[in-house]
């Protein structure tokens, strides 16, 4: 199986092929020569197909790629999915931490990891952390929605109201929706707990 590479990359060694040189050495040689984004994605695809159960090789490729392209949140998600499939929950959490550390203010990283690491989001402190970094972003509404969903599931109505107040401080895409939900929650809470 050969990589589909551009003409300029045809002379790169075929990573993962049987040879005298080990996998890590082949990967390091490619990195030293310099890879463009398309070549990286081709290598990742090839390794995933050739070695679907070899976590060491998958980790080597993803670690190298994500050190060059830390804002590629879809690849952080794919990496976390491989860890979830082949490793323990703790290892998936480590990927989450690395993604957040590498691109702390990237809403996409938080959202992509939210999608693949739902277990990580069952923790109030993680929501607080995520919102402290990206809560003011106009397009962070998927994270606010997940945070609201979490507090709703905990049935902590006072905390939920506080979260809605926080959402109203920033001009996010769903500002009007959050206002409507907040007023509805307040009306419902007053009606049930105060008047009756």
Automatic annotation (TrEMBL):
InterPro entries from the UniProt entry: HAT (IPR003107), TPR-like_helical_dom_sf (IPR011990)
This protein's GO CC annotations: commitment complex; U1 snRNP; U2-type prespliceosome
Keyword RNA-binding: no
Keywords: mRNA processing, mRNA splicing, Nucleus, Repeat
Main location: nucleus
Cellular compartments annotated: Nucleus
GO biological process: mRNA 5'-splice site recognition
Designated name of the protein: Suppressor of forked domain-containing protein
Organism expressing this protein natively: Camellia sinensis
């Amino acid at each position: 199986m050969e990589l589909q590479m551009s003409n300029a990359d045809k002379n790169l060694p075929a990573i993962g092929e049987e040879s005298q040189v080990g996998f890590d050495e082949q990967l390091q040689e490619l990195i030293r020569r310099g890879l463009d984004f398309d070549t990286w994605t081709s290598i990742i695809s090839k390794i995933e197909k050739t070695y679907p159960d070899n976590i060491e090789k998958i980790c080597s490729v993803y670690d190298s790629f994500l050190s060059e392209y830390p804002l590629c949140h879809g690849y952080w998600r794919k990496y976390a999915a491989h860890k979830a499939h082949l490793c323990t929950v703790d290892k998936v959490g480590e990927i989450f931490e690395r993604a957040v550390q590498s691109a702390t203010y990237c809403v996409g990283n938080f959202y992509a990891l939210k999608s693949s690491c739902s277990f990580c989001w069952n923790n109030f402190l993680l929501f607080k952390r995520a919102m402290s970094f990206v809560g003011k972003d106009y397009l962070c509404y998927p994270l606010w929605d997940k945070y609201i969903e979490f507090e709703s599931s905990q049935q902590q109505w006072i905390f939920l109201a506080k979260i809605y107040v926080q959402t109203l401080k920033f001009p996010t895409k769903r500002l009007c929706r959050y206002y409507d939900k907040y007023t509805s929650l307040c009306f419902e809470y007053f009606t049930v707990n105060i008047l009756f």
